C-alpha cells in the first residue's frame, strides 16, 4: 500500500505521476491531468490482477468495504503533503477533472476503456467523497451545528445549515454540474427550510434540553444555595428560551410559509421546555411533596409575568388576574382539585407550588 501512488507508465499516452493521472490525448494539446482520488481510483482498477498491482499491494477484492477503507487511508497518507484528502480539496480536484475532460471533449471511458473497471473506479470515488462529506457535515444536524442559546437562534442557524448540508450529502459525485455547484458555492442559494431530514423534532428538542440543563446544573452547583439559584435560573430559561426576538428581524426576510414553520417549531418548543422546567422543579423536592403528574394543559402567556419562587401572594394575584381574561385557565381552576391545579402552576412557573401554602394564601384573600 505504501507504494500505491508511485509513478507508473501505462503506455505512450498515459502515465501516473505526482498524484495525477496524465493523459496525452493529442500531441499538440496540453495533457489532461486528473488529480485527487479519481486519478488514484483509475490507477488502482487499471492495475487489478496485474504484476504491477500485486507489487503495489492492490488487492483483487478492491470492491469490498474493508479494502476500500484501507485504500482511502493509504491515499490520504500519501497526498497529505499536497493538502489533499479532505472534502474541499477533493471537490476542487474532481471539478477540475470534469472541466478538463469537457474542454478536451473526452470522457472517462477514454482514460479507462474497460467498463467494469471504470464502474469500480466511479463507485470508489463516490464512496470516498461521501465519506469526506460525512466527516465534515456529520450524521446529524446537531453534530454539525453546535448548540447555541437560545433555542430560537440555534434553530435559525441550523435551518440555514441544513439546506446546504442536505444538498451536499445527497450530491451525485458523478454529475459534473452538481460537483461544479459545490466547487463554486456562491452560485447556490441557502434559504432555510426548518425541515431536518431523518431527524425527529422531539429528539432534537430533548438533546438541546439535556445540553442546556446540564450546563445550568453545573453553574448552580457553584452557588452555596444551589436550589434557590436553580429556581431563579428556571425563570430566566423560561423567559429566554420561549422567545424568538433574537431572530425576529431575520425572520421577516423569509417567505411566509417558512416563517410559519419556524413559529410551529417555537410553539412546540415552548410547550416542551415549560414541561421540562416544571418537571425539574418537582423533582427537586422530597417524594412526599411531589404530586401525581397530569398532562400539562396550562402554559405561561405573554400578558402576565410568572410569580417568583415561594411568593404565594404573587401566585394568588396571578390566579386572580389571569382568571379575568383567560376562560380556559378559569375553567381549569374551578373544575379541578387544588393538587392538580398546583401541579399545573408548578409546570408553568418552573418551581414547586405547594398546595398547602397556596390554599392558606387563597383563604386569607377570602377573609
State the helicity in percent bands: 55-70%
Widest beta sheet: strand line-up = 1-2-3-4
Structural class: mainly alpha
Report the major sheet.
4 strands, antiparallel
Percentage of residues in strands = under 5%
Low-confidence stretches: 285-291
Total beta-strand segments: 4
Oligomeric state of the chains? single chain
Which shape, going by the Cα principal axes? elongated
How would you describe this protein?
By secondary structure, the chain is mainly α. Helices cover 60% and strands 4% of the residues. The chain has 17 helices and 4 strands. Strands 1-2-3-4 form a 4-stranded antiparallel β-sheet. Helix 4 packs across helix 9 (176-183), helix 10 (201-221) packs antiparallel against helix 11 and helix 11 (226-241) packs antiparallel against helix 13 (256-283). Mean pLDDT is 88; it is low at 285-291.
Short description:
The protein has helices spanning 36-46, 51-56, 65-79, 87-103, 108-111, 115-137, 141-144, 151-169, 176-183, 201-221, 226-241, 248-251, 256-283, 312-323, 327-335, 338-349, 355-366; strands at residues 8-9, 14-17, 20-23, 32-34.
Topology:
Blueprint: E1 8-9, E2 14-17, E3 20-23, E4 32-34, H1 36-46, H2 51-56, H3 65-79, H4 87-103, H5 108-111, H6 115-137, H7 141-144, H8 151-169, H9 176-183, H10 201-221, H11 226-241, H12 248-251, H13 256-283, H14 312-323, H15 327-335, H16 338-349, H17 355-366
Antiparallel strand pairs: 1-2, 2-3, 3-4
Amino acid at each position: 500500500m505504501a507504494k500505491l501512488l508511485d509513478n507508473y507508465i501505462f503506455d505512450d499516452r498515459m502515465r501516473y505521476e505526482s498524484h495525477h493521472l496524465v493523459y496525452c490525448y493529442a500531441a499538440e494539446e496540453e495533457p489532461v491531468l486528473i488529480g485527487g482520488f479519481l486519478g488514484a481510483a483509475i490507477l488502482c482498477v487499471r492495475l487489478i490482477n496485474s504484476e504491477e498491482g500485486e507489487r503495489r499491494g492492490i488487492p483483487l477484492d478492491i470492491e469490498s468495504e474493508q479494502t476500500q477503507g484501507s485504500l482511502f487511508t493509504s491515499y490520504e497518507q500519501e497526498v497529505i503533503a499536497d493538502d489533499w484528502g479532505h472534502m474541499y480539496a477533493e471537490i476542487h480536484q474532481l471539478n477540475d477533472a470534469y472541466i478538463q475532460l469537457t474542454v478536451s471533449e473526452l470522457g472517462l471511458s477514454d482514460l479507462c476503456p474497460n467498463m467494469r473497471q471504470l464502474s469500480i473506479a466511479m463507485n470508489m470515488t463516490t464512496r470516498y467523497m461521501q465519506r469526506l462529506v460525512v466527516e465534515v457535515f456529520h450524521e446529524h444536524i446537531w453534530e454539525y451545528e453546535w448548540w447555541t442559546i437560545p433555542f430560537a437562534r440555534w434553530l435559525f442557524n441550523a435551518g440555514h445549515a441544513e439546506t446546504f448540508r442536505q444538498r451536499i450529502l445527497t450530491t451525485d459525485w458523478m454529475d459534473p454540474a452538481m460537483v461544479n455547484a459545490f466547487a463554486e458555492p456562491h452560485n447556490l442559494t441557502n434559504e432555510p427550510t426548518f425541515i431536518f431530514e431523518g431527524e425527529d423534532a422531539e429528539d432534537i428538542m430533548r438533546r438541546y434540553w439535556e445540553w442546556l440543563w446540564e450546563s445550568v446544573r453545573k453553574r448552580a452547583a457553584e452557588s452555596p444555595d444551589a436550589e434557590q439559584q436553580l429556581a431563579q435560573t428556571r425563570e430566566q430559561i423560561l423567559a429566554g428560551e420561549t422567545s424568538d426576538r433574537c431572530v425576529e428581524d431575520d425572520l421577516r426576510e423569509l417567505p411566509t410559509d417558512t416563517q410559519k414553520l419556524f413559529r410551529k417549531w417555537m410553539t412546540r418548543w415552548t410547550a416542551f421546555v415549560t414541561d421540562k422546567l416544571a418537571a425539574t422543579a418537582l423533582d427537586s423536592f422530597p417524594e412526599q411533596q411531589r404530586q401525581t403528574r397530569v398532562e400539562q394543559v396550562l402554559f405561561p402567556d405573554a400578558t402576565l409575568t410568572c410569580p417568583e419562587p415561594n411568593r404565594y401572594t404573587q401566585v394568588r394575584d396571578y390566579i386572580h388576574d389571569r382568571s379575568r381574561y383567560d376562560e380556559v385557565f378559569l375553567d381549569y381552576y374551578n373544575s379541578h382539585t387544588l393538587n392538580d391545579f398546583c401541579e399545573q402552576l408548578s409546570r408553568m412557573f418552573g418551581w414547586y407550588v405547594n398546595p398547602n401554602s397556596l390554599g392558606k394564601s387563597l383563604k386569607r384573600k377570602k377573609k
